[in-house]
Predict the 3D structure of the following.
Amino acid sequence: MSDQENKKFNIYDLNNLWIEYDKQNDSLYIYFAPENVEAEESFLIGEDVIVAVKDDSLISITIMNFSKRIGVELC
């Protein structure tokens, strides 16, 4: 297992939690930071799941092919 797989991240700011679904790309975005906070690094942590971090804090999670993963067609 690589160091990246063992790394733990704090949540950037849970009070800034917001969720957005992009139907065209079938992607769910979960944010833990204001829009103006930019990631320093992004990691693919599983099939179609990306996490973005800044200063060792998790700022977002992106789940691609979301409706297919949950087995529901979203409007």
The beta strands are 10-11, 18-22, 27-31, 41-46, 49-54, 57-64. The chain has two helices and six strands.
